[in-house]
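Problem: given the chain below (367 residues), write out its structure.
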Amino acid sequence: MHVIFWIFASVALLALAGTVYQHLGSLRDRRIHTGHGHYVNIGRGCSVYFYEQGQGEPTILFEAGIGATHLNWRGIQDPISLVAHTIAYDRAGLGWSSPSRTPRTPGNIAAELHQMLEAAGFQPPYVLVGHSFGGLAMRRFALLYPEEVLGLVLVDPMRCEEWPPLNPAKQSQLDLGHRLIRYALPVARCGLARLLVTSLFSRAGKLSDQIAGAAGAHPRHVLGRIKTEVKKMPRKVWPAVAAHWSRPDFYAGLRSHIDSIPATVKEMQGAEPIREIPVTVLTPGKSAPLSQNQLEQIGDSVHQIMAPKSEHWIHLDEPDLVIDAIRGLIGAPPIATAAHDEPAKTFISEPELAESAVLLPVAHSAR
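Solution.
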């Protein structure tokens, strides 16, 4: 009995220590990583965090993919801010913003973005730049507030026909995301996620490698892919990305986004085309080009550009293509194309981002 008592006492003590470690780490992260941005209250107890660079007109708005934050755009925002005013932000439920108060559908997200812009005192016109799921949110924004939009750049926008309820075969991926997040939340609360993610972003990453390896070949494979993608982002944002993935709120926000995918598909499948606003769509060379019918469903003035060296994350694989598409909409000359090495062939898709983001924290628990 004494042995059992001490085992339980030790476990409870470790859990308490981990919870304190997580709480103090979260406070430190917020103090360190939010100083360069701003918060704005959009009502209902929700504060939205945004990062602003540059000046003048128009304003370039960046909308990230389903589990990503404003940090995902830093490699594009920095150079664009030299010629325009730029804003990248964290949707409610992700990054440093408050938990979401509404389902994470394009209509709700677009309305909240508009509230943020008004509350912060920003003025149109806007050029909207959205990646994947964020592309749908920007399409909805343009439909709701067309008089404020100068143009759109959609970076491999999410294709509704690939997801439930239109494609029930993908339901298993959503179910997997739910299961992983169910494990990840308590693991994050006790600080283990912080320990593992910090290891992932360190130079060695030995602890995360060992745990993913113990969990099996598939976790090792996904870990390798996520490392490849993260390394394409500016090194200066790595600590903040690690801080986001260490927080329980991240996994709760990711779950709310996954929950809203079927409603998102229903909403955008029946959306009207964007009228009289130029739209540039960037499509990965590894994917089938959007058909003429698909382009016409987006808008009546759509130009498609193929990114031959990219898969889903074009803004990480071929950032110059995205930069030039934005510059073209605002009348700035294209940048000189620099020579790039062939991008790594390993690739993590947006659905797999949800999986990989929770993989490390739950790998040990799922063994």
